[in-house]
User: What shape does this take?
Amino acid sequence: MRIAVFGAGVVGGFLAAKLTAAGIPVSAVARGAQLSALRSQGLRLLDAEGERRFDFPAVADARDLGPQDLVLLTLKAHSIPDAAPAIAALVGPETVLVAAQNGIPWWYFHREGGPLAERRIAAVDPTGSLFEILDPGRVIGCVVHIAAEMPEPGRIRHLAGNRFILGEPDGRLSERLERVAALLRGAGLAAETTPAIRYEIWQKLWGNVAFNPISALTLATMDRLIADPGSRRLALSIMGEAEQVANRLGIRFPISAEARIDGLKRLGAYKTSALQDIEAGRPVELGALLEAVLEIAAELGIPTPMLAAASTLARLRVATQR
Assistant: This one.
């Protein structure tokens, strides 16, 4: 099987390392300092087993690899529109595309069957062309539950978590879905399949939609955000608005927002992805986490004043830093 990781950052690099460790050949598409590091010193993964080096082919141009059987798309959502033509270079007649992004993905309403079925989401697909360039019929959704960071190019520190939840947009437990899950399990990953991938997307998004912008604004780690009464109240307000949007899309959370926040205490002094990006000077993922939810809320007529305020301030914070 020909397997490529497109976007060998924290999640993509972790996946490439785990597949390589299991003897499963994989290639990667990367850029900049990360590409240089992968070529010169391989990828170094620091986890409970210590620090190990893994070597695999890394290219800047996806055309150098050609069509793949499986593409693990681990770019952040805001990078996908510009990268779409390059991603398409990896796609052949039978290619499966595993899309592992935080937030609302570009394919969310494909085969969704609700009031917004087949809608394009401008926040993650500004030109409305991704359905044509990256056929959503090839997509398997993937929700990632790991905590990791990249202290320097080519080096990943895995902190916690090993869970990858996979699902078809139409809810089928298909043969290709089971094949991908089995492959990841063979690499020692806790891969699960679900007939309700959108529920899993919202379950993770529910916390991110509040704590990512708040952390970007305050530069505070998760433990401080949860312990501070003011930031906790703000998070609860934002999560309440997001829950209304999820409910209208048929998503029901089994616990309260208070319980969800309490469950995040286990992360300790964890830095959200937004805070990590702020500190590293990278673009911050706001479109899929905030603006897509606002866009859907507006379409459904749901007021979201706190979420809108958080989105506006977070985007200004990012623009000011740049």
Remarks:
- The chain has two domains: 3-195, 199-321.
- Residues 213 and 310 are 6 Å apart (CA to CA).
